[in-house]
Amino acid sequence: MQSALTARAIAPPPPPPPRAVERYRRRRVRGTRTTTHASSSGRTDGGEDDAPKSSSRDRDDRSYTRRAALAGYALAPASALSFLAGAPPSDAKLELIYDGELQTAYTFPVQLQVIALRGSVATQWEGEFNKTMVGKGKAAVTTAPSPGEMFDELTRTAPPGGYLSPADFIAGRTSSPTIAAPSKKDKKKSKGAPKFAKADVVSVGDEFLAAAVTQGLVLPLDTSVAYNEWYARLPYVWRELGTRDPRTGLPAQPLRPVNNGGRYPNTTVNIASNNVNPAMYGVPYRWGCTLIAYRKDKLPSSLRDTPPRDWDDLWRPEFARRVGMGSGPRAMLTAALRAEGMSANSDGWGNDGAVRARLESLRREQLLIQNDIEYLQALGNGDAWIAVGASDDVLSMARKSSLIGVVVPSSGTTLFADVWCVPASAARKPGGVSPLLNQWFDYTTQPARANLRVGLRGGVAPIVFDGTGIDYASIGMSGPVGGYIDYDATGDTNGTRSLGGKIKRFITRDETEKGGELMQGGMPADDVWARSEFLFPLSPRIKDQYNGLIREWAQEAAERKKKKR
User: Fold this and answer.
1) Please, what sign has the CA dihedral across residues 209, 214, 219, 223?
2) Is 141 within 8 Å of 467 (Cβ atoms)?
3) Going by C-beta distance under 8 Å and a sequence separation of 6 or more, which residues neighbour residue 352?
4) Is 407 helix (H, G, I), strand (E, B) or coil?
5) In angstroms, how far is the first alpha carbon of the chain from the final one?
6) Mean pLDDT, consecutive 10-residue segments, the chain of 565 residues?
7) How confident is the model at residue 432, as a pLDDT?
8) Nearest C-alpha neighbor of 523 from the set 469, 473, 476
9) Which pLDDT score, from 0 to 100, does residue 184 have?
10) DSSP letter at 520?
11) CA–CA distance from 149 to each of 143, 145, 191, 208 (Å)?
């Protein structure tokens, strides 16, 4: 009876009877002698019990909800899935005995709704991942324009009061609440709200991860992640970046990988029910860095042989009112701290006033524009001669113009990463979070996803970077395709010398020094990466110092405005 109820819940309108059942019916109508079967007790059974025997799979008396059945069968070992190997995704089926007759229950494959940051996922990933599922599941990948907009959507679609018992929802132990219907006001605010409410996994910029954790916008993963191959594959620096203290959002010591011979102990990545201890909230899958870009054709003659190569070049007198930056006060503070040889995450800027003087000079004398979109436009049209921005944006602009030179700051730069997170709204989906999370994390962190032949363009896979250098040998490379950047070389490295000088340098170069052009796959040496860092929330001390300076600027602006009236 239990199997009958399960079949009735899963099956669509009855399909044509299977051939085996049809043959069995004909035998009964014609009065054909039935075949007897020996039971396990040694008796022979006949009559009404001599229907075609189902396989051990069909005789399983366990009761499955629709979600549990999908998770149990779609994510079972390959040998248990051989009966689905040749079936199209919509024809995944489970044969059951219903009212004494063999019936076929049709189910849909497991779905995984992914929202990635635009440009952070290769276009072929979706198709390749779905091929690996062989009809057992399917991912649908859509995009969001920017990390900031992704965070805003997570805020709008988060369930009131944060998530509710996600461990129970994903395991299917309790009935899942339905997603609250968005109000008319919310619909006007965001056309993408329904898409985000259905998402199982989203990519979040690491600069927003701390806020997403403390506000309950993303869910922690269970400690069982330590048993997975993809978790052990990630270097320590990335496991630490994704592990956060829920009270502060700051990185915490990650779990130690458990060597399990490559076996997954669970069919899904569970969601932790304990939101007190540090847990892994994000799975990094690509990273980039802050770059300095400049107009080669606008460089004064005094800078032709010594083009920009580090943070302090932003304060050169030649670049007065010619500096462009993205919006946000943190960008200015980072540049000032790094130019003074300090960490961008320093607890304070000291008592000598050097950092404050840098900030004052940058704002009053050097800065032309500070806007996420317009600073690159200003660089493109020649209004700005030098700019600081994320590698994704800067390299995209540099591809459009050979007049733009690009360099990684030689004293080290700031890093950013895109991480996969489970949104809090996913726990409220009917059926819970998709059980394909583990497979998606595994696919997107495999060595095959690492493409260092184009350098920083498109981002770099975390598995080749341990925080101190890039392991080219792990993916069969001896070094960067475009060579290592030679910061001690003259302007020829960045394309500012004469054509004759370029040809001579090209002919006399050796294999270890190929020019180091970032646009041709060049990369900095490991010592530059070792001096680089991720950005974390500011300490209360330096936040108070910086906010005090910003208030002074605001007061000055208000007074100037008042005088003009």
Assistant:
1) positive
2) no
3) none
4) strand
5) 85
6) 36 45 45 38 37 37 30 32 30 57 62 93 92 86 92 85 40 39 47 75 95 92 91 95 92 84 45 66 96 93 89 96 91 96 93 93 95 92 95 91 93 96 88 88 92 87 94 90 77 42 45 58 93 93 93 91 83
7) 80
8) 469
9) 52
10) G
11) 11, 7, 12, 11
Residue 112: Cβ-neighbour burial (10 angstroms; 0-12, 13-18, 19+)? buried
List C-alpha distances in Å: 11 to 52, 53, 68, 218.
Answer: 20, 20, 15, 35
Rounded to 10 deg, the angle between the 354-361 and 540-564 helix axes is: 40
Q: With beta carbons less than 8 A apart as the criterion, state whether 468 and 530 touch.
A: yes
Sign of the torsion formed by the C-alpha atoms of 257, 260, 265 and 269:
positive
Is the CB of residue 305 less than 8 Å from the CB of residue 496? yes
CA angle at residue 144 from 140 to 150, to 5 degrees? Answer: 115
Nearest of 490, 485, 469, 478 to residue 518 by alpha carbon: 485
pLDDT of residue 68: 30
Place of tokens 């300090």: 342
**Cα–Cα nearest to 399, from 452, 456, 336:** 456
Calculate ∠ Cα 77-81-87, nearest 5°.
Answer: 150
- Angstrom CA distances, 290 to 392, 406, 449, stand at 9, 11, 22
| Beta-strand relationship, 101-106 and 93-98 | antiparallel
Q: Helices (H), strands (E): how many in the chain?
A: 19, 17
**Coil, strand, or helix at residue 130?**
helix
Domains of the chain, CATH where assigned: 2-106 (no CATH), 111-286+418-449 (3.40.190.10), 289-414+489-553 (3.40.190.10)
Give the residue from 36, 17, 4, 136 showing the smallest Cα distance to 77.
136
CB atoms within 10 A of CB 51: 17
Q: Phi/psi zone of residue 543: left (φ > 0), alpha (ψ -120 to 50 degrees), beta?
A: alpha
Residue 456 has which token pair? 């920083």
Residue pair 57/83 in contact by the 8 Å Cβ criterion: yes
Residue 327 φ then ψ, to 5°: -75, 165
pLDDT of residue 457: 87
Residues 397, 300: Cα–Cα separation, whole Å? 22
User: At 61, phi and psi to the nearest 5?
Assistant: -90, 0
Threshold 0.85, pTM exceeds: no
**What single-letter DSSP state applies at residue 254?**
P
Helices 437-444 and 125-133: angle between axes, nearest 10 degrees:
130
137 vs 139: CA distance, rounded Å = 7
CA distance 427 to 171: 11
Name the amino acid, one letter, at 68.
A
Q: How far is CA 163 from the centre of its chain?
A: 21
What residue has token string 């599922």?
A: 133
Q: What is the pLDDT of residue 293?
A: 95
Closest of 282, 283, 287, 306 to residue 296, by C-alpha: 306
